[in-house]
Write a structure and sequence with these properties.
With about 170 residues, the chain is α+β, with helices and mostly antiparallel strands. Helices cover about 20% and strands about 30% of the residues. The chain has one domain: Aminopeptidase. Bound molecules: coenzyme A.
């Protein structure tokens, strides 16, 4: 049986092994890693899927604080989702959808920051309304395929048309 638990309960070395298995070598050179470089993981939103009978890690989903910096230099905080990884031996069995559903449940609809990710729209748009429609004018700190830069936000949520996505540099309070 699949259980969704906080990722913080899993040995980080097991998560790294899972990510290697799902993404292969060179994964840490991907642009997504640069977008959230230096950030601490959002523990309350990052989850793991485990097979509770076998005590086995099946999947992981991480969330990070990032921001889109607009042309005026203003930061618009967002939550970056990913990597989302399901072990190759158990893909296509609903594990990915269970983790995403758990994340969205954790967030209160309408009160949240936009969710952003780099992923396959054929999956994330189909099941979870992540779309590239509003990210066309955004840039990233590395190469990316525009149709894979996805955001999930309410239609009413204002999003800059242009901006650069990167780590969320928190303003210093004086
Ligand atoms: C992409 C991924 C997270 C999906 O999770 P999963 O548990 O395998 O998928 P689910 O069981 O939740 O969903 C299965 C459905 O999604 C479809 N699907 C799975 N991966 C897909 C993809 N990359 N693109 C389009 N559709 C996909 C399946 O065909 C299936 O469709 P069906 O119900 O019509 O048969 C997982 O396969 C994975 O980790 N892949 C490798 C890493 C990766 O590419 N991560 C995404 C970028 S962050």
């Amino acid at each position: 049986m699949i259980s969704i638990i906080p990722l913080v309960e899993i040995d980080p070395a097991l998560v790294e092994d899972l990510l290697d298995a799902a993404f292969g070598p060179g994964r840490t050179d991907r642009t997504a890693y640069k977008v959230r470089e230096g950030m601490d993981i959002l523990e309350g939103l990052s989850v793991a899927a485990v097979d509770s009978s076998e005590n086995e890690l099946l999947g992981s989903l991480q969330c990070w604080p990032v921001a889109l910096t607009d042309e005026a230099g203003k930061q618009h905080p967002m939550i970056m989702v990913g990597p989302v990884a399901v072990h190759p031996d158990c893909q296509g069995k609903g594990v990915g959808q269970s983790m995403l559903t758990a994340l969205l449940k954790e967030l209160h609809e309408g009160e949240n920051l936009p969710l952003v990710m780099i992923g396959d729209p054929a999956y994330y748009d189909r099941f979870f309304d992540f779309s590239p429609a509003r990210t066309k004018g955004w840039t990233l700190p590395g190469p990316w395929e525009p149709e894979r830069l996805l955001v999930r936000a309410h239609d009413q949520t204002p999003l800059p048309e242009k901006g650069k996505l990167g780590p969320w540099v928190r303003p210093v309070k004086h």
